[in-house]
């Protein structure tokens, strides 16, 4: 699978992506991705080559040199509903690249994967991802208070996080694209 945008290529992972992947997933900045934390190139290679069959996971690379700057992923939960997410290297923030990648990926899901509905969970304090979802035309369908815990407080008790759900339907995506 290859998606080409103005500045990016979204493609299947390659072995050469391990070092770049390790760079941005060695310290996930969002607690919900603590489970994706990588500790070595070997763990990065395992991440690249051992995803579940229901998971679509692609490298986001700069078009000019094919350097990995992030990844996008989607889990098919029903025949036509996908839960999506993304990771991006902080050194490439503020340039519109996450928006460009997410737009290309949503186009792919709605056009080629026959998605009817796409949604994503975003921690309430993750302002960058919330803004990205809104720029993509996704609506906030609510915020679940103390929804889940990914980390613990220093005393070992769970730290529960407020989590928003953003979603968009295929017909809404197409309407937004036609404007």
Automatic annotation (TrEMBL):
Ranges for domain N-acetyltransferase: 8-172
Record organism: Phocaeicola sartorii
Coiled coil residues, start to end: none
PANTHER family assigned: GNAT FAMILY, PUTATIVE (AFU_ORTHOLOGUE AFUA_3G00765)-RELATED-RELATED, N-ACETYLTRANSFERASE DOMAIN-CONTAINING PROTEIN
Alphabetical list of Gene3D superfamilies matching this protein: 3.40.630.30
Protein name: N-acetyltransferase domain-containing protein
UniProt GO MF annotations: acyltransferase activity, transferring groups other than amino-acyl groups
Pfam families, A to Z: Acetyltransf_3 (PF13302)
